[in-house]
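Q: What changes when S-adenosylmethionine is included in the input?
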Amino acid sequence: MRRNKTLKPEEDVFGQEIWACYKGEEASEIVERDDGYFDASPKGPKIYFSEYEDWHLVERKAMEFVKGRVLDIGCGAGRHSLYLQGKGFDVLGIDSSPLAIKVCKLRGLKKAKVMSIEDVSFKPNSFDTIIMMGNNFGLFGGFKKTRRLLKKFHKMTSRNGLIIASTRDTYKTDNPDHLEYHRINKEKGRMGGQLKMRIRFRKYVGRWFDYLIVSKKEMEEILKGTGWKIREFIDSEGSLYIAIIEKVA
Ligand SMILES: C[S@@+](CC[C@H](N)C(=O)[O-])C[C@H]1O[C@@H](n2cnc3c(N)ncnc32)[C@H](O)[C@@H]1O
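A: The predicted holo structure follows.
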């Protein structure tokens, strides 16, 4: 995705959805993959406003691992940041979407900033926990970029820093379109679950961006040599899982 410091309202498709939902309007989300596969989620952005009680169990469990100063990457409408702020944590929510950050502030998030994951830059030891919820491990985009950013995150976090990231095991599917997509991706030298996609909402069409969905084995492989390792996985009954990632001692 393009550096989003300059994201204009008409390019800010995630933000437009979130803004519409904030205003109480009907809003659904359409995800388009570069093979032409469409996925429409009628609940769409409403989920980004959901309260703790309505979150998936794995997300609620993940919150138990949060400690200290928190960075919420791709915070959306701020549901996790606001929950944690309410529990007394010092939280900074960042998102590439100016409209999402506007909504976070209107909803009472004290520290919220427009910043894309590609531009993340903080002094050493600025955070104790980085959270990437709502499948936001995907924002890493690809193998090399994940490793580059993980090394950066290593410096930004305290000695016992944690990354809490949610994703889906892309291979837990029998959908022939997805299986074909994995196969073609691998042929191209990409990871199977390295999706090229864009978001559509009403008349807005976002830019194409890479979104990475990985199996646990792939995640372990990516982490090697970055200074991070898996502490544990929080599993759901389906493909969704959350990785608790800690520093290598
Ligand atoms: C699927 S939503 C998840 C929102 C929130 N974490 C949640 O679970 O409710 C993804 C969010 O990531 C943001 N985003 C997309 N690309 C980004 C990037 N490159 N850097 C930072 N945020 C990004 C979007 O604007 C959107 O708010």
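Observations recorded in class: Residues 1, 14, 48, 74-76, 79, 95-97, 100, 116-118, 133-136, 139 surround S-adenosylmethionine (CB under 6 Å).
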